[in-house]
Amino acid sequence: MTNDLDFMTALELKRLIATRAVSPVELTERALTRAEASQSTLNAFCHLMPEEARAAAKRSEEAVMRGAPLGLLHGLPISVKDLIAVANAPYALGSRAMAGNIAAADAPSVERLRAAGAIIIGKTTTSEFGAKPVGDSPLTGITRHPWDLTKTPGGSSAGAAASVAAGITPLALGTDGGGSLRIPAALTGLVGLKAQFGRVPVWPTSATPTLAHVGSLARNVADAALLTSAVAGHDPRDPFAVAGPVPDLLGAAKASVAGLRVAWSATLGYARPSPEVAAIAGTAAMALADQGAIVDEVEAVFESDPADLWTAEFYAGIGTRLRGVLESRRDLLDPAVADVLDAALAQEMRSYYETVFARYALRDRMVSFFVDYDVLLSPTLPISSLEAERNIPDELEDRSLVSWAFYTYPFNLTGQPAASVCAGIASDGMPVGIQIAGPSLGEFDVVRAAAAIERTRPQGYNLRPITRP
C-alpha cells in the first residue's frame, strides 16, 4: 500500500517534519514496513535496522517537539549501500568472502547522515565489491526493478536505487567507481549525483581508492543536492578529500542556465547507443536552449574509448584485495567478477603504468575541453532497460562486463563531477537517463544543468513505479 508520503520529495517531507505535520516516527515505520514487505520481490536490502531506526526516529521526534535546531536531513528515512561502513552493522561488500564482517566504525558520510538527523533504516544490496553494473551478487541474490520485476535496477548501487524508486526511502547513499550511481539512476528514472572526486570523503579505504566516490540517489535534483550537501566536506581520514568549501548545491538547483555553455555528444566518439535512447537524450539536451543555454553538438569528445584504462585500475585494485580468495576460495566469488580480476592481475608493471600515464593525458584533454564548455551532456547508458540476471545486453555482447555502459567510467578516471537525470520514457515504458558532466570542482554547473533538464519534462510527469511492492 502506498500513499502520497511514499513519493514525496525529501524537501517536502523535511518541511512537514519541521512544522509537525508529519512525524519522523510515522515516516520511519512506513519505510520499514515497505522495506520488509518488498524483500521477497525487490530484494533491495541486505540488512534492515528496525530497532536502531525506531530509536533514532523517536529521538528525532522529541527534538522537533521541543523546538531544537534541526539538521539538513532531520527525520528523513535513508538507506546506505553495503560498500559503506555503518558501525556495528554487516559490512560484507556484497561478497560471500566477506560474510559475517561487521563494521567497527561509521564511514565519514554515515557520521554526517546521523549528525544531519537522517534515520538509517538499513543497508542496501550491491554487486560483489561494486564490480558489475547490474544488481545481483552470490551473497544477496538478485535485486529487481520496481517498475518491472523482470528487469535489473542496475548497479552496483542496486538496492539503493530500488529503495528510492519504490518509495521506500526518499534518499539513498551509494557509491560510484565507474558509474554505480549514474547507471541505476538512469535505469530507474532517478537522479544520481557523484560530486568531484574527494568531495565526499571515502573511508575505510576503498579497494579502488583512486576511482571511488560516495554519492546520492534521489527522486529529483534538489533532493540529490540536499543529500550531497549534508555529507560533503573535508575529512583527514581520506587523503584525497577536497579541502575547499562545498558549493551551494541547493542554490544551484534553482539557478538559471542562461548563458551556460553546453556540449551535447550522442557517442563521446565511441559509444553505440540505441537510436531511441540517443534521440530522447538529445531532445532533452537541445531543450536547454529554450532556457537560454548555448548548446553545441560535439561528436568526438575522446580520442578513443578509455575502457582499458578504467579496467586496469578498477579491477587491479579489487583483484589485489581478493588475491587470497581468488587463489584458495574462488568458488565464493561471482564467476563473471573472478574472470575479470584474473585478467587485471595478469598485467605487467610496465603495462599498468602505461595506462596510468594515459589516464593523466585523458585528464589533460578534459581540462582543455572544458575551457570552451561548462557542462558536457550525453546519454547515461546506451539502453533503457536490461533483464535481471543478465550481465551484458544482447546487442552489446562484444563489450566487457562494464564497458558496455560506455558513458560513465571516463568521469571516474578524471574525477570530474557527473550526474544522471531522467530525460524521458522509451517505447518499452522504461526511463532513459541523460548524463551531465562538468569540469573539476564544477558541481554547481552540473546541478543547475541537471535541474534545468528536469524542468523540461512535461507537467505531471510521473516517475512512480508501475509495479508497486
Explain how this protein is built:
The structure is a single chain. The protein has 469 residues and is α/β, with parallel strands linked by helices. The chain contains 15 helices and 13 strands. It has helices at 10-18, 24-38, 50-65, 108-115, 158-165, 182-188, 221-231, 249-252, 275-286, 307-321, 323-328, 335-345, 349-372, 410-413, 443-455; strands spanning 45-48, 77-81, 119-124, 136-137, 141-142, 171-176, 191-194, 213-218, 261-264, 294-297, 375-379, 418-425, 431-437. The protein has an eleven-stranded mixed sheet, sandwiched between helices. A two-stranded antiparallel ribbon has the order 4-5. α2 (24-38) packs antiparallel against α3, α10 packs across α12 (335-345) and α10 crosses α13 (349-372). The longest helix has 24 residues, at 349-372. The chain starts with 9 loop residues before the first helix and ends in a 14-residue tail after the last helix. The relative contact order is 0.14.
